Amino acid sequence: MKNNKLVIYFSLLFSIMSNLVIAQDTIVINNEKKQTDIYQSIYYLNDKDSILSIKDILKEEQQSKFVKNVSNPLNTDLGFSSVWIRFSLQNNTGKELFLKLENIDISEIEVYIPTSKSDSFQIKKMGIIYPYGNREVFSRFFIFSISDGKDTNVHTFYIRIKQTIHHEIPLNIGAIQYLLADSIVTDVFFGLVFGIMFIMFLYNLYVYLVIREISYLYYIIHIFISFAFILLMSGYGLLFFWSKYPQTNSIINTIILVSTVAIIIPFSSNVLQTKKYTPKLHKGFKVFTFIIIVNILMFIFIPSVKIELGSLIFMLLFIYVLIVGIAAYFNGNKTVRFYVLGIIVYLIGMTTLFLKFMKIIPVNWFTMHAHYLGIAFEILFFSFALADRIRFINEENSKAQKESLELIEEQKETLEEKVQERTSELQIASAEIFIQNEELKQQKEALIAINDNLKNNSKLIESQNNELKTQEEELRMLNEQLVAQQDNLSQINNHLEDLVDIKVEKVKEQNKQLADYAFFNSHKVRGALARVMGLCILIEYDKDNMSKIELFDLIDKLLLSAKELDVFIKEINVILDEKTDK
């Protein structure tokens, strides 16, 4: 009997203690106008093999394994396992209450809502593996209706969560309008982030179309990839773009990982000009490309590989880009300062995300959104970096253009000096040519005058030739007469042959003398005489216009011709004297 009493006593004590514990952790909602964070009132159980069912969970063996949550929010390493969550709720508001899970990456969620029957539950399922149409409320978070407000009794709820990338699972209960109102600030924040990225995309696309600089093409692709990354990570992509195809989430995630590597390395190499300023560090980009591709393939084909490894590799890549940027800056590339700042901001945001994943820092609004801020500021600083680079290039071009203009100005001045010198030389040469032309004109006029004189002299010479021809004809006739006389004498003095021969010889000698005389008279005497007469006519014709030098020159020529005439006359006399003596 005593043993039975002890058993009954301890059973009652255990029941009372259990009820006290449950009562202490029961979530009592009295005001529907606010949302209640239930992290302090939940218990969780890790189902590493994902084999437990609701029937298994209700057994006392599994109930004893539930652990009370002490973190805000619930933060457990799910990986690829499942977790069961238990909480008790009393709805005193008379209004419908909803449960919100502020985690957008949960593959499967099963909410077990107790019914009026004992150990009976209504099961509601959501998750990113289900089409968006399965959701009760239009929201990027998972929101379940768990109480209609008609029953004020305490009820125990169970949640089974399977596979999530984010470890933290914020849980809130409240009226639907207040749960949604709590998301307005976050929606506005993402609206600003998307707005900044959209403006940067359009602006830099316009700049690229204008200047055709390859770095701007890399940048707008980077903006597009970052935009897709935020859409994926924030849940807006599934909410607005691919809600009917939730399985595309993992595909888009892989594409973003590959695209980020494919663009950030050539983009950084181009902006930092690593081949020029950091040729040795440039080779490290090839190593990172290989490592990240291997990690992506492992993540796709080996499910046990955790995403933290990929995040760590990406962090190391951006740290390496930061090191290369700093090295490029100190090696003379001053245009990378904003790019380095963008990398630093991005690393701060991603470091916050990584530390949150590793449970090193607490989960709050800032740590949950720091990486989005990092991406937004990175986009802005990258835009500043490209603008700074274009400004630097323009300054270099302006400097080169200024130097070219100065060189052109110097060459222009030198050319003007040479032109002036050449112009002076041409003016002098022109003056000389003008003087020469004047001299040639005077010479031409003199030649014309001489030509006229020569024409007159030619006429005079022609008349003299006619006279000489007349004289020659007279001599010919005389010669004919002499011949006739000779014939007559030959006939008369045939008997005086010797005498006649002598006479003939004498006549022949006379004829020869006459011929010599005629030759001198027609060729030498007449030539000299013609020159004398021509010079006299020239002097008479132009004596008023002649200078003394010209007059004296003509007089000298006249004297020379007179002397030649005198010599010819003397030669004729000598010849005649010789013939006479004979």
Tell me what you see in this structure.
By secondary structure, the chain is an alpha+beta fold. It has three domains: 19-182, Immunoglobulin-like (Sandwich), CATH 2.60.40.2380; 185-395; 508-582. The protein has 15 helices and 13 strands. It has helices at 2-25, 54-57, 60-63, 176-181, 184-211, 214-234, 236-240, 248-272, 274-277, 279-301, 307-330, 337-357, 365-492, 497-542, 548-581; strands at 27-29, 36-37, 43-47, 67-68, 74-75, 82-91, 97-101, 106-114, 121-126, 142-147, 154-164, 168-169, 171-174. Strands 1, 3, 4, 6, 8, 9 and 11 form a seven-stranded mixed β-sheet that branches. Strands 2-13-7-10 form a four-stranded antiparallel β-sheet. Strand 8 (106-114) and strand 9 form a beta hairpin. Helix 11 (307-330) packs antiparallel against helix 12, helix 13 (365-492) packs antiparallel against helix 14 (497-542) and helix 14 packs antiparallel against helix 15. The chain is rod-shaped. It starts with a helix and ends with a helix.
